[in-house]
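Q: Given only this backbone (374 positions), what sequence would you predict?
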């Protein structure tokens, strides 16, 4: 009898029941993903994946314990090296699993609950508050495309649905492509090209008859049906690799006394994004809507200089807009990975950023640059 064959004693979705009951057996560390693979195959379940950045690799267990303090969590257990949480959300119970680091400082949360479910939305909002040492990450455009390109090596990729936000008025946008014999669905690149002036959120893809999957720019995906191993090796691994690159970029950005300042970061957007005063106002509004954040405007015209303080962990940043297609972020003496991720993702999601990079064309600023006259 395998670890997945135990009869459940609580009412949970089938995938959740199997994983929760598996904690009652001796699950070897390192076998978590194979156990999950077997559970998906056994139940035929969909699987929602969300990749998160850890604030401090050395204290990953603290982040997991904070997750256990989330409202509605009634129990948490180890499943090998993974942590599974049992949540009682109003009248329904569900579980979610946090897999051990696939890359240093990168955790993957999985659940049978779909992103359109209110339970998932509440979980997402709780994580977005930022007081738990974990943060989502908004993928660079090239990272998002690369996953579609990698899937294309296994079969013809066809897009059936895209969701986005219209940058001009903030309204939601949905585009579907029904299957038609004389008019094939667009590829992932063709679908994204149609929404080039929008902030794309999700893209549903068919890879021949092998896989049906939804990709999310907020480093996530949903497996609907098909070859789970293809989903795991291309989509999950691709999301984790992209998140690891972002974490490497954001780590160790604090200013330190008597040491050269780290180079600033830049959120790159499409041309002329900040060419109009309304866009600057929109940027400020977006920053002020962040949880536990204060914004102080030092200078607004002809360039924008803003001080941002994240009260979740004390991180602080100076933010500049002096070009129409980029926002420069200069970390202060406290600049955590998760706070930097929230700040750059807020800008990136609102203005459909192309990439987050290190500034290479400008010298690192001095304190006089930040606070001096002029």
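A: Predicted residues:
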């Amino acid at each position: 009898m395998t670890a997945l064959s135990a009869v459940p004693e609580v009412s949970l979705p089938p995938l959740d029941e199997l994983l929760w009951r598996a904690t009652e057996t001796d699950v070897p560390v390192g076998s978590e993903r194979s156990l999950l693979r077997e559970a998906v195959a056994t139940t035929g379940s969909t699987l929602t994946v969300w990749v998160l950045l850890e604030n401090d690799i050395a204290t990953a267990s603290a982040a997991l314990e904070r997750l256990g303090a989330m409202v509605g969590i009634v129990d948490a257990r180890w499943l090998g090296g993974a942590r599974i949480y049992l949540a009682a959300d109003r009248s329904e119970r569900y579980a979610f699993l946090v897999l051990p680091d696939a890359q240093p400082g990168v955790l993957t949360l999985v659940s049978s609950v779909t992103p359109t479910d209110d339970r998932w939305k509440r979980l997402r909002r709780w994580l977005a508050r930022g007081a738990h040492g974990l943060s989502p990450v908004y993928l660079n455009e090239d990272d998002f495309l690369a996953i579609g390109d990698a899937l294309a090596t296994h079969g013809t990729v066809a897009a059936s649905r895209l969701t986005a936000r219209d940058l001009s008025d903030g309204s939601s946008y949905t585009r579907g492509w029904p299957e038609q014999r004389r008019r094939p669905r667009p590829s992932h690149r063709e679908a994204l090209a149609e929404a080039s002036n929008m902030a794309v959120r999700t893209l549903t893809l068919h890879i021949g008859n092998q896989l049906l999957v939804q990709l999310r720019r907020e480093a996530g995906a949903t497996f609907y049906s098909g070859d789970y191993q293809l989903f795991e090796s291309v989509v999950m691994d691709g999301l984790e690799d992209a998140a690891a690159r972002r974490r490497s970029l954001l780590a160790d950005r604090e200013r330190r006394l008597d040491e050269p300042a780290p180079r600033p970061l830049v959120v790159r957007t499409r041309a002329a994004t900040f060419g109009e005063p309304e866009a600057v106002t929109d940027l400020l509004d977006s920053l002020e809507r962040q949880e536990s954040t204060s914004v102080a405007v030092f200078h607004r015209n002809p360039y924008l200089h803003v001080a941002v303080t994240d009260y979740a962990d004390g991180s602080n940043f100076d933010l500049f807009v002096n070009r129409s297609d980029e926002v420069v972020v200069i970390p202060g003496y406290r600049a955590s990975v998760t706070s930097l991720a929230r700040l750059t993702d807020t800008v990136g999601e609102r203005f459909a950023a192309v990439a987050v990079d290190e500034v290479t064309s400008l010298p690192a600023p001095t304190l006089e640059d930040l606070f001096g006259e002029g």
